[in-house]
Amino acid sequence: MRISLAADHAGFELKERIKHHLTELGHEVEDFGTSSSESTDYPDYGAPAARAVANGAVDRGVLVCGSGQGMSMTGNKVRGVRAALAWTPEIARLSRRHNDATVLCLPARFVAEGDALEIVDAWLETDFEGGRHARRVEKIMTTEQEE
Description:
Elements: E1 2-7, H1 12-24, E2 28-31, H2 43-54, E3 60-65, H3 69-76, E4 83-85, H4 89-97, E5 103-107, H5 113-125, H6 132-146
Parallel strand pairs: 1-2, 1-3, 3-5, 4-5
C-alpha cells in the first residue's frame, strides 16, 4: 500500500517511528515532513499529505500532531478526504468499517508509541463494510459537494 505521512513538531518523533514500522511491513511511504522537532505549522505538512490521498497519488494517509485535532481538521478540508482521529485500535477500525476513512489522524501527546502502532495496524487491516454505511458515506460526500 502507498501511504502519505505527515506531522508537525509535536508528532515528529512518532511519525518517524510509524514510517519505520510501515516500511518494515512492506508499505511504500511518502513522507511530507516535518523533518525535525522544531516548531512548525501542521497545515503546511498535513494538507499536501491529504491532497496526495485525494488525487490518488497514494492509497491512504496518516497525519500526526499533538492532539490530532489540527491534522484532522486540515485533512477534512481537502475535498475527497475523510480524516478520522483515533486514539484506540477499535476507534480506528470503526473509522474504516463504518466511515471508509482515507486518512488516519493520531494524537502524539496522548497515545504511547506502541499503542499508536497498534492503531495504525488496525486501521490499515480493516476494510470498509459498505451496506448501510455506504449510503451514509455517500451523504457525507454529497454534503461536501454542496458547499
